[in-house]
Structure formats: structure tokens, C-alpha cells
């Protein structure tokens, strides 16, 4: 626990708060949601979540130091016309909203990749986004009968109701009935 | 500058160092690389870049708090068999390596999305990754004659030479000859 607290001190406030209260065994209790529960058309929502200027600029300085994500004045000279979040920050926020919205109470085993991402509109400092995760379809795994794949369409909306981002991918989920298909 | 230093104090060391030395006007001098320079088959490399346990866990606590990214013991019970980097951290590291490798000296205008991401193998604490960016093809923009698209295949390799991640996408690049096609 000492190491955890010491380490947390060099992280962002949000990450630090999470790590100091998080217990490894608390994250994976018996899942509430299994592969069988992700039926086509089922929708999960989460949010809203505000993105601050500080978060956008801090993330960009670390991972995506392009002028439109770093500095208001420099950003005005770009095609974006002003400071906006890195598309990768949008992906990371979407990931966290999925985790808080339903993944951490599911039998999720991660994902082998991402099918497609579309950044449709800029996310500006102070914007709030809401997640909508829609199950598109699902299938069992031939090589691993204990799991299946669930394909999702993830969308982030701003307060005006515009979809600012779409991400499509399949997640691996443990099956409640662990029998071969 | 005071605001920049104050803000930098709450970021990771790496982001803070970057922000305190970065000058907005220093990032977009006259680009060295334009759309015309990204000819099919051209390759850019960068790295190696080490990923520490602290970085992996800190990122996960902020954006992807699943047990395989947060805690060694909890991670052993998962399909990953031990602590590994979030796939989103791999994407962010790849983005930063592209920026440092060639993007910040190019006429890049960002990207409309991502075509595909494949996370092929786990990145473990202490692993070093190297970037290889290969130009697949390019085309001009019909609606914006001042720019074109360059489609890249981005790969991250570990020290053993295994490809641990592939990302395919098109970047928007300013054209040296800003005439309509």
C-alpha cells in the first residue's frame, strides 16, 4: 500500500484517487454481465463527462503534441480553428466511460483491436460528452469455448446531441455457460 | 509562462518537461515534409521507447482500469497472464513516436479517424518498442485542393523483433503545390 500511495503521488489527481482506493480483488467480483447478456440492440449509456482544457493540453503534451491540441493561439492557425482534444484522448475517455458504464461489472477479457474510429467533430475545452454503447451482434469463439465476441458501436455525444465520435470494435466476454458451442 | 509552469506541475514528468520548454511558434515552422514527400513505400522509423510499469499502471488508473493493466497479482488471473499495457496506451505511445519521428516536421493536419488497430502481443513492464511507419498510398482531396491524404501502416516492434501492434489510417497533409488537382 505504501508503494501504491507513493506512486499515486506522481499521477494526475484522478488517477491518484483511483489507485489509492482501488483494491485488486474489488475489480473482478462475480461479473453481473456475461457474453449472453449482450444481446443485439442492447444499449448502455454513461456520463456526462466534462473534458477540461488542462486535461486536453496535459494529454497532448504527453502523447500528441500537435499545435491544435496544445495552445489556443497556435490552434487558431490550424484547420481546427481553435484548441480541441486529441482524438486519442477522446478514445481514452470513451474507454474509461465504458469501464465505468458496464465493463468493470462484466466478464470482459479485453479486445484484440479496434475495427474503426471516426472523429466527427471537435471536442472543445469544457465540453461534456455522453457515451452510448450499442450491441451490434455477437458470436461464440471456436478456439475458446469459455468466451465469445460482442461487437459494439460506441458513440460519444456532446450536449447539443451531436455525435462527435464513433468507434466500432469487438470485445471478448466470458460466457456464463462455459460449454463448447 | 507562469500559467504554463503552474499547470505543468500537475502533469507527469514527461509532459511537464515538454510544456515548460515548448514554444507554440516552434512547433510549426515551415514544414520539411509535405504530402508530395510521402510516396508509397517510404518508411519512417523511431525509437526505441521504453514503457515502464509506472507509466502502464498510471495510464490504466486514469483511462483503462481493468485488472490486467493495474496490478501484477490481479493480472495473473486474467487471460493476459500478467501485467501488460492497455492497448490504448500503445496507441498513445505510437502517436507520440509518430510526432517525434516525422509528424512535427511535416504539414500534417491531423486525421479523420483510424481504419484499424490490431493488438497482436502484450507489451510488458520495461519493454522497449520501435516504430515503423510505411506509406501505403496517397491521394489528393477533391474538396480541399490545399491538402491530400496519406495512408500509413504503423507497426510497433519489441526488442525481439515481434510486431506487437499494427495501426492503419490516413493522415491529412498539406500539399507543397497548393493547386487544384
Descriptive notes:
- The structure is a homodimer of 181-residue chains.
- With 181 residues, chain A is of the alpha+beta class.
- In chain A, 30% of the residues lie in helices and 28% in strands.
- Chain A has seven helices and six strands, in the order H-H-H-E-H-H-H-H-E-E-E-E-E.
- The first copy, chain A, has helices at 2-8, 13-21, 24-27, 53-63, 67-70, 72-76, 87-101, and strands spanning 43-50, 113-114, 116-119, 128-140, 147-157, 163-174.
- In chain A, strands 1-4-5-6-3 form a five-stranded antiparallel beta sheet, with helices on one face.
- In chain A, strand 5 and strand 6 (163-174) form a beta hairpin.
- Chain A is elongated, with a radius of gyration of 18 Å.
- The N and C termini of chain A lie far apart (43 Å).
- The model of chain A has no long low-confidence stretch (mean pLDDT 90).
* Count of DSSP H/I helices of chain A: 7
Strand content of chain A: 25-35%
How is the main sheet of chain A built? 5 strands, antiparallel
How many beta-strand elements of chain A? 6
Q: Give the largest interface pair and sizes.
A: A-B, 60 and 60 residues
Given the C-alpha coordinates, what overall shape of chain A results?
elongated
Oligomer: homodimer
N to C succession of SSEs of chain A: HHHEHHHHEEEEE
The neighbouring-strand order within the major sheet of chain A is 1-4-5-6-3
Helix percentage range of chain A: 25-40%
Summing up helix and strand content along with how strands pair, one would put the structural category of chain A as alpha+beta
Q: In angstroms, what separates the terminal alpha carbons of chain A? A: 43 Å
Low-confidence stretches of chain A: none
Mean pLDDT of chain A: 90
Amino acid at each position: 500500500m505504501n508503494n501504491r500511495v507513493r506512486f499515486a503521488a506522481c499521477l494526475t489527481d484522478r488517477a491518484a484517487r483511483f489507485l489509492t482506493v482501488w483494491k485488486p480483488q474489488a475489480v473482478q467480483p462475480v461479473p453481473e454481465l456475461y457474453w449472453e447478456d449482450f444481446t443485439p440492440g442492447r444499449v448502455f449509456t454513461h456520463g456526462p463527462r466534462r473534458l477540461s482544457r488542462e486535461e486536453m493540453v496535459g494529454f497532448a503534451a504527453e502523447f500528441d503534441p500537435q499545435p491544435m491540441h496544445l495552445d489556443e493561439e497556435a490552434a487558431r492557425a490550424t484547420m481546427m480553428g481553435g484548441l480541441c482534444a486529441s482524438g486519442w484522448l477522446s478514445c481514452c475517455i470513451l474507454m474509461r466511460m465504458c469501464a465505468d458504464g458496464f465493463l468493470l461489472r462484466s466478464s470482459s477479457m479485453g479486445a484484440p483491436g479496434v475495427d474503426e474510429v471516426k472523429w466527427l467533430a471537435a471536442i472543445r475545452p469544457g465540453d461534456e460528452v455522453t457515451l452510448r454503447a450499442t450491441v451490434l451482434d455477437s458470436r461464440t469463439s471456436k478456439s475458446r469455448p469459455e468466451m465469445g465476441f460482442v461487437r459494439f458501436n460506441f458513440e460519444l455525444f456532446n450536449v447539443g446531441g451531436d455525435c462527435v465520435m464513433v468507434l466500432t470494435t469487438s470485445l471478448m466476454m466470458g460466457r456464463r455457460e462455459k460449454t463448447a458451442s
